[in-house]
Amino acid sequence: MITVNEKKFALQTANTTYAFEINETGHALHLYYGKKVRFADDLSDFGMIRQKREFITGNTIAYDQEHLALGMEDTCLEVSGPGKGDLRSPFAELTFADGSRTVDWIYDSHMVMRGAKVRKTLPGSYDIMTFEAGEGLLKKRAEEEIADVLRLSFLEKSYKVRLNITYLVYENTNVICRYADLVNEGEEDVIVNRLLSLQLDLPESGFEGIYFDGAWAREMHSYHVSLGHGMHVNRSNTGTSSNRANPFFMIAKPQTNEDAGECYAFNLIYSGNHMEIADANAYGKLRILSGMNDEGFEWLLKPGETLEAPEAVMSYSADGFNALSYNMHSFVRQHIVRGEWKEKDRPILLNSWEAAYFKFDEGKLLKLAKRAADAGIELFVMDDGWFGERDDDTKSLGDWEENTKKLPHGVKGLADKVNKMGLSFGLWVEPEMVNVNSELYKAHPDWVLANPKREHSEGRNQRILDLTRKEVREYVVESMRKVFGSANIEYVKWDMNRIFSDVFSQGEPAGGGLKNRQGEVAHRYVLGLYEIMAELTKRFPHILFEGCASGGNRFDLGILCYFPQIWGSDDTDPICRAEIQQGYSYGYPLECVSAHVSASPNHQTLRRTPMKTRFAVAGFGSLGYECNLSDFSKEQMDEVKDEITLYKQYRSVLQHGRFYRGGMGPLADRVAGGDGTSVLYNPTGYGNITEWTMVSEFGTKAVGMMLKKMVQPNTQNITYYPKGLEEENKYRFFNHELSYDIRDFGDLVNTVAPIHVKQDGLLIDILAKKIKLPAEKEEYVAYGSLLMNAGVALKQNFSGTGYNENVRYDQDFSGKLFFMEEDDGTVPVSEETVEEIRREVEEKEEPEETAAEEINTEEVPEEIAKATDNEGENSNE
Ligand code: GLA
């Protein structure tokens, strides 16, 4: 809701309020952003919260002779420029034709559109279609949606340049968006050195900033810095939003945790170079800025032209990070993700990359697909290596014709066969790139971002196509149109595997004047990319597109406007992934993060982890498998089938539910006990335990996960605290645990085995196939309030003093799932109970399957007996 009285403005969402006013000099003074407050109907109480000024602050600049008490340095503003006394980093920097660089924004007019129908074209670009009176109910209709919109228009005081700031109020998600556009209304060129999207001047600076940085294979690691003094910059200059510094960030009052405390979140709907500045000044005021990175940026704005900056997103929570994330998740779900896949369940896929890399042919892929179909997987994805002469990463990018040696029946032949197995089919492309060793490069060596006067610096042996050029964009659209139309393709993984270098266009950026426009290339590239994505997603509305850039090198809201999911990281190790996915979860809903179960030892870390852990972590994203199922044993395949059945059962909760992190949040290492959960069960360090809960929309079902990195000896008790349940609902709580592998107990098996079993011998392998140790069973019925507040005291942890079926065995890297279902009063029978009954029946039917304790030599089957004999012979014991 937007309330305006004269030049006072209050923007209200369900739980937040944002307020500012225009002062006597025409500057927009920021007054308040925080918990929802009630103002007088005429906003006359703004006077109480307005900062008082009688005399100028010493050694600062008085704005003008009529306002000697007004110093810009000590004032909270909605927009700022350099040169009039404000020493903080500015919102916009311009160079006028006479070389002057002072910028002073003075209010000119405003326009309010309640319940405006806005149609998004490019991210950050709106055509306001019509507007109607109303309360601004949020509704998304196809490409249209309704928001309350306020457009403020400023004129530069001495030069004819207009700055429009548009606020969009999304009431029920507690999000306010804001973007800027600059119009040259004069007769002379203006150079734009900086045009940002968001400025928020807070009157106090005692915040912690929480940012997400990383690198390839270790994206989204949160870190926090004190924003009390000086300037902190989070920025990307890779040409993409980058794995080095995600544009999403938060600020929080110290002591804020997952469930309590004041915090703000910010993001940018943009996929290129960006920067987020937190500038605390000498007067304890904190300026937050975000927008396009100005390093190397220079935009020539000719008379009559407009430059539009991307849209920024902000939200506030008085109740900690989980509530803040929920605002962001709801906003992304309702207003960012579009098209047919917006609310649809995402399919479980099998991706060929880590299963085969470049080394495959149709036969190998079909074998893999068959295994996938048998396991209940729904979509088969052929990754890199299917086109041109692509046997490694040095060639063929740009030549999007199938390799007929690998695929004698073409993409279509393969897709048809895969479809016949009951799977849908998808493939990998990297449309923005070209290898020098390709037909495309031979034909158009100038179509890349490169300066012909310099030796080019390559990344992954490839170059970036110059998407600022129309003919290049047309080629990309046309070549992809052919690929996507060549078979029944229902999914596309759109990759982008290098960062920018040698940024130089050999074409004619819009308006000509090559020499003066190179500072525009990085931004024009992103606009070109959006144009291509818009065109292809419009032409192929049924395709589920997945973004990827060497994993998470372009994980942002701009991409999510077109592609509903993004490959979170090339790192599929669940221990790394848990941290990465938790990082994403602060700003992005987890169904947008695709996550795969992969091989153990893992291909990026060589770490061995249990299958159940890999599944538990990947299950909290859009689930896929990326491993060679063709080599899996029957036992492993059974486990995969079991997981897939389970995931399908809970998919709607996991993909559309409300997500909660356990523990104390990213500021937790300030809290005694370290991991932010409890001193008792994690005495030694931050993040040893990860706890997640996903709750269905109406709170009737929930899935929990608890991941332990390292075993801490003699920590017998552990409590799982679900969150987000309905206090008054009764739930059946149960765990999903299959059984334990006796080999995990090593030599200890001999304490119960009637015959000696050599730890790494053949016998133990045979026994392990026959005998599984029943795992602990957790099953309770309790009210939501009890579950959430007292927690579930889980079975005693194995601590070296004894073991039976009521002991919980969590080895290093153990991840376990819990389920909560509203209890409707019928006798609770968990899957585990059913499984147990099934086992009992089977055991009765097959008497040779004996339990470990019952083994005696007379009853040992022949093959085991033989192995025992051999072991006995070879043994020195
Ligand atoms: C990137 C992606 C991987 C895979 C390879 C193929 O690294 O992130 O998932 O698709 O490219 O070359």
Question: Could you explain the architecture of this structure?
Answer:
The protein has 877 residues and is of the alpha+beta class. It has 16 helices and 42 strands. The strands form eight sheets. Strands 6, 7, 8, 9, 10, 11, 13, 14, 16, 17, 21 and 22 form a twelve-stranded antiparallel sheet that branches. Helix 7 packs parallel to helix 8 (521-539). It starts with a strand and ends with a helix. Residues 353, 383-384, 428, 495, 497, 548, 550-551, 567, 570 line the site of alpha-D-galactopyranose.
Features:
globular; single chain; twelve-stranded antiparallel beta sheet; binds alpha-D-galactopyranose; eight-stranded parallel barrel; alpha+beta; 877 residues; disordered C terminus
Q: What ranges have pLDDT less than 50 throughout 5 or more consecutive residues?
A: 129-143, 670-686, 847-877
Global structural class: alpha+beta
Portion in helices: 10-25%
Globally, the shape reads globular
Q: How far is the first residue's CA from the last residue's CA? A: 81 Å
For the sheet with most strands, the description reads: 12 strands, antiparallel
Q: What ions, cofactors and ligands are bound?
A: alpha-D-galactopyranose
Query: Taking all residues together, what is the mean pLDDT?
Result: 89
Strand content: 25-35%
Number of helices: 16
Rg from alpha-carbon coordinates: 30 Å
Topology, number of strands: 42
